[in-house]
Design brief:
Two copies of one chain form a homodimer. By secondary structure, chain A is mainly beta. Chain A has seven helices and 40 strands.
Chain lengths: 595, 595
């Protein structure tokens, strides 16, 4: 009963909203202007592609640093700058300082906003105190703080317009993802899958911060905003209470499926896309069943939150292969036919191409040959064919299952890929890391880690390198070229009409490669390791490329948090130990241009 | 009696040493190789001049950043890198991490040394947790830690060779100055004038860290290593116990005169030069008399510590005009005659030119026209003619004396100037700041601040700018050109055979100006405000310029320590408040070269 009432309320709230909303139109217009970088991903489609071509494959080798800016904060700097007019907006990890910088004066500070947050939030952040950036809409800069507070700041002055609270760090909820502005709403995800947080996506009014709807990853239909008859999974209705039916008892209430990745939106279809994370705990024996809808791609109506379709990539996860990586929307030929595609490089090591209208599964192929936990994805059922040897459930509790590829941080983590419509290729920062995984029984206490697994990580067999930067044909599901990197590529990539692809490395290099061949055309050692996303913009008729360096994140958690045990940082510390021979902490924006 | 014994011991220790020592010869050879930057000041003469000319006034405008490196430490980064062969050595403020960086691989870390120090040392550091750099000698890198520990590290491996302890932070002693290697010794100064520390200079054996001699700034002759008959002050013997004779009672025991500035050495004369700091307390009424030998230039024999001559610039200081700024040794014409000169830009606002053989006073002129506390220096007595209106002693305790120029941080603080033998000019980073000063009675407790004055600081009358970068004719005592800067110039300067002078600004700009005219030829915004010293070197036949940014120091103490009260930071916080509109904390090395 209570559930139904909530569903009805959510629906009516949606229906009361005006059909056309200003922010949406403004952002759609802005994303067509390549001088700006108005959204974290550059555009609603999450392509991270820019039409700028002043910097191109022919001249990128002479790139030089235009100016730099230290954020004054150590630890991992994910995300990247926004550029709106003559102003650049950047952010820092906890305490989540936001800066408006004057592009007319080498980044002089126009305003600075530094929230006061309880430092007790820090230990609740599983994988460094990262933040993936601010969003812009309707004259406001939206910040999603570590403590889950959502703040709208006046873009001109930095004055607080409104605040909303999305969760409670005391129960393990934190904020790391970038806000996503659609129509008259701000879409906010949540982190905390390692603390048994039940993931949800919440829409707040862009005007005043009031909550409009919330859709959980699991729970009764009223919570998940799934329609038993109309919401489909691979073309079939999901049925009643599909978000509880594959769980034992009340485990779904602490079931994970958090939503800390990237969001995309198709204005023609009016659908919002994102993925959900791992089911809780990491010990699969404690949660038999498919654990729907963890590890799932969601396509939701942004006004009401109602899901049109879902697709679960990793039913009953046994490896922490969160499904939260970005969904890139591209109209591409898939096996000979033009499709409205959604392309997603999952942590489980499969590159998925779906029909974004219907959720039909078109392609699912490994984008790292090292992937061994599943032989393939059954294209009818959509299920991966799991290999018993690498099944931590089949091997059992307190058994250390060895040699699983990829490691928990995935063949790719949240670092976003890019799509160039000029080459038709996707450029993907990847990890080439395997793991040993030993699940154990764990009991739930609110606000305490709820992991139940001990991990160690190391390079995939046959080499010592921990990453590759690859070009991917999503229509065929094939690697086109692959550049090995000593460490995982943990930065977001950028492709441009200059047929150059940019990415950063954990040692601190910004690299530019030829979009067609992958040939390295330029590299520059920034002050610290790069886990930020490369962006580009134009100012006074000149193209710039900008990136935050500042090593940290899950791969850099050893350095960021001062951990030294190999199994610390959920297993990442051991694998990335050599990183401290190359770089140190420190958050710095580096802005590049041609001489 | 006890004093005499100590003097005898000190003398005999000196006599037992071998006459010629390897480190000295090695360093003398190294300083002639312009590819290296083997000493913090570039050479024993402290000229900070390089014979390199690949980067010159004609092409410096096309300078670009070669690579960068974050130290992982916030707060003020003073000092600068050393370059020995293919290795660069840099350091950080507390915790005083030292890095050996591989110049063949964009600064990859060869080794890192991070001392464990008691964080309780931090509050004992008056003016940020700065460190002015490491020194090299005989295959060792010498670090002078904040807690006064002196550590010799194997330059190849970073392994600890020896350690010595120079003082006790619990009694207010700290280490901020760079070690200085002369012959077979390491010369170490001490900080803590704001805690009543009695300043001293100590020589340790470069081989094993054993103490060889210690010369105090005040006290009986056995402590000061002044010979009553042979040590002269302006040509006259200083007389017996000159280091206690101008003090009332035992005040000299907590008399200040610390030695935290730069050291220079003339191998032909075999004399070591440096200056001593303010007498303690800052309340002049509590210490009548000249307070010798605070505020004094010392010329000492490096083997024995015995002083050949002294010159007290500011007898009975009433303004905190520490005499610790660098002594630049240059053979220049002075009023028509060639002299072996020592040139010193004192915090008291006078540019002094002395005969460095005899200590004869040749020139003493104001290098900032704003200086008003004294009308002039009497050339016979060497005494400044103090203006009653700005005498905090004459005005009295608990009186707020207004409009004193310069402020306590001086017309120039420790940021070292440079001398170009090509132009014959000295290039001086200066402050253009005045103050109100209210002395009050204070009682001494070991390890507690012993200041006794409340200050506020502000720009000198007639403008809003807080600094100038000037060219100075030390033979005539005249400003040749002066470039105003919005903030004090708190970085060390560099001049080269390319007729370019480099310096950094508190907003973060590295600037290159024409040595003859001062015309700005290049500027680049580094990640943070620059209080480090610009150095240059050659690697694989290419010239590089390197500087540490990382705002802080006394001028940046508000940002570094998070202070907001105008009178905090001994008065500096108010004057430099606008700095946070331009830059944030963060230690980053930026290395420049031509395209």
């Amino acid at each position: 009963m209570r559930g139904t009432t909530k569903l009805a309320l959510a629906l009516s709230a949606g229906l009361m909203l005006p059909a056309a909303a200003m922010a949406n139109e403004e952002l759609l217009k802005m994303e067509k202007d390549p001088a700006l970088w108005s959204q974290p991903a550059g555009n609603y489609a999450n392509t991270r592609y820019s039409e700028l071509s002043e910097i191109n494959a022919g001249n990128v080798g002479s790139l030089k640093v235009a100016w730099t800016f230290s954020t004054g904060v150590l630890r991992g700097h994910e995300g990247g700058p926004l550029v709106i007019g003559d102003t650049m907006y950047i952010h820092a990890p906890f305490p989540n300082t936001v800066f408006a910088l004057d592009l007319n004066d080498n980044g002089r500070i126009i305003w600075k906003y530094e929230p006061k947050q309880d430092p007790d939030t820090i230990p609740v952040m599983c994988c460094d105190t990262v933040n993936r950036g601010v969003a812009y809409g309707d004259g406001k800069i939206i910040l999603h703080q570590a403590d889950t507070t959502v703040v709208a700041l006046d873009a001109k002055t930095g004055a607080v317009v409104w605040k909303a609270v999305n969760g409670d760090p005391k129960s393990g909820s934190t904020g790391t993802s970038s806000p996503f502005v659609v129509k008259d709403k701000v879409i906010i995800g949540i982190s905390g899958g390692e603390f048994g947080v039940r993931g949800s996506v919440t829409a707040y009014s862009l005007a005043d911060g009031k909550q409009v709807w919330r859709g959980y990853s699991m729970g009764p239909d009223a919570d998940t905003l799934l329609d038993p008859a109309k919401t489909t999974h691979l073309g079939q209705p999901v049925g009643k209470d599909s978000g509880t039916a594959t769980w034992e008892g009340d485990q779904w209430k602490i079931g994970g499926g958090t939503t800390w990745g990237w969001y995309s939106y198709d204005p023609a279809l009016d659908l919002l896309y994102y993925g959900s994370g791992n089911p809780s705990t990491w010990n699969p024996a404690q949660r038999p069943g498919d654990n729907r809808w963890s590890m799932t791609v969601f396509a939701r109506n942004p006004d009401t939150g109602m899901a049109k379709w879902v697709y679960q990539m990793t039913p009953h996860d046994e490896w922490d292969y969160d499904g939260i990586n970005e969904m890139i929307l591209a109209d591409i030929p898939v096996k000979g036919a033009d499709r409205k595609a959604l392309v997603h490089f999952d942590r489980n090591g499969f590159g998925y191409t779906l029909d974004r209208v219907t959720g039909e599964l078109l392609v699912a192929e490994k984008f790292d040959p090292a992937v061994n936990w599943a032989t393939h994805v059954d294209m009818k059922t959509g299920r991966p064919q799991v290999v018993d040897q690498y099944s931590t459930h089949a091997q059992g509790e307190d058994v250390n299952t060895k040699g699983i590829c990829p490691a928990a941080l995935g063949s790719k983590d949240q670092q976003p890929a890019t799509f160039s419509p000029r080459t038709g290729l996707f450029y993907v920062p990847t990890n080439h890391v395997c793991m040993d995984y030993e699940p154990f029984r764990v009991s739930y206490t609110a606000g305490q880690p709820y992991v139940g697994a001990t991990l160690s990580m190391y390079p995939a067999p046959g080499g010592t390198h921990l990453g590759n930067f690859i070009a991917w044909d999503a229509g065929e599901g094939k690697i086109v070229w692959s550049n090995p990197e000593p460490f995982s590529v943990w930065s977001g990539a950028l492709s441009t009409a200059g047929d150059v692809v940019f990415y950063g490395t954990l040692e601190g290099y910004l690299k530019a490669v030829d979009a067609k061949t992958g040939k390295e055309l330029y590299k520059f050692k920034t002050p610290s390791g790069i886990i930020g996303n490369v962006n580009t913009y134009m100012h006074k008729g000149k193209q710039y490329v900008a990136v935050l360096s500042g090593v940290g994140g899950w791969a850099g958690i050893g350095m960021a948090a001062g951990l030294t045990e190999d199994t610390a940082g959920l297993g990442a510390v051991g694998a990335y130990k050599a990183l401290s021979n190359y770089t140190q902490l420190g958050g710095v924006l580096t802005v590049f241009t041609l001489p």
